[in-house]
Specification:
- The protein is an all-alpha fold and 257 residues long.
- It has one domain.
- The chain is built from eleven helices and no strands.
- α5 runs antiparallel to α11.
- The longest helix has 28 residues.
- Pfam families: TauE.
- Keywords: Cell membrane, Membrane, Transmembrane, Transmembrane helix, Transport.
- It comes from Microbulbifer halophilus.
Length: 257
């Protein structure tokens, strides 16, 4: 793969768009991962490089939200730890075993999330009764989503936010804000393991990091200044698009000789 200035500029813009989308609804990987694969980056290196730019995007979003008075309190410590452990397990496993079964499971999960959000128009509009305690949620849903992010990635923020609404009774805005920190944690852990294995294309990653900073900053301000109305339709759209994209990619691979 030849890295030209034009290609780097394209990835800069792609990462900006992904950072904005990812901050509001998750699913930025739908934009960046296919772009990396189309550019000829090998699959595992594409996953690894995607993590490098994802780290910066989620870090920027988390820092912006923290500066605005969010993402504070000791209650965040346990879910951050379990999210990191889940991501470590997923990243370790994806480099050692066949994970072809994810090609069918992930699209189904994404469609379920889209259906759930669509059928509940008031989802997360106000706090509701929690089905799990903070500790139960941190020990069950959080490491599972963290594992998914380590093994694959796209849609992680959406899964974290959906679990916060469904099991903790949070508003969609509050769940989405917390998802930024958890997603940042899983990205850091996963990137560290991928980098140790020499899988990251750092030139592309650095270019996309710059784009992510801009996109995530805009997305964070959009979220906190009336952009919450965009979260629900974006979650639905990104889940459906990611699901269809995954299915199409898998069917194409099956047809290859």
């Amino acid at each position: 793969m030849e890295l030209t200035i034009s290609l780097l500029l394209i990835f800069l813009v792609v990462a900006m768009l992904a950072g904005w989308v990812d901050t509001l609804a998750g699913g930025g990987g739908l934009v960046t991962l296919p772009a990396l694969l189309l550019a000829g980056v090998p699959p595992v290196s594409a996953l690894a490089t995607n993590k490098s730019q994802g780290v910066i995007g989620t870090m920027t979003a988390s820092a912006t939200l923290f500066a605005r008075g969010h993402l504070r309190g000791r209650a965040l410590i346990l879910p951050v730890v379990t999210a990191g452990l889940g991501a470590a397990a997923g990243t370790w496993l994806v480099q050692r075993v066949d994970t072809g079964w994810l090609n069918w499971v992930i699209p189904l999960l994404l469609l379920c999330v889209a259906l759930y959000v669509w059928l509940t128009p008031n989802m997360g509009a106000a706090e509701s009764r929690a089905r799990q305690s903070e500790k139960q949620w941190a020990l069950t849903s959080v490491p599972v989503v963290g594992f998914y992010d380590g093994a694959f990635g796209p849609g992680t923020g959406t899964f974290f936010a959906a679990s916060g609404v469904a099991f903790r009774g949070q508003t969609l805005l509050a769940a989405t804000i917390r998802a930024k920190l958890l997603n940042f944690t899983t990205n850091v852990v996963s990137l560290a393991l991928f980098a140790a294995g020499g899988k990251v294309v750092w030139t592309l990653g650095a270019t996309m990091m710059l784009g992510q900073v801009v996109g995530a900053t805009i997305g964070s301000h959009t979220m906190l200044t009336g952009g919450t109305r965009l979260i629900r339709p974006l979650v639905i759209a990104m889940c459906i698009l990611m699901s269809l994209g995954q299915l199409a990619q898998h069917l194409e691979l099956i047809q290859l000789p």
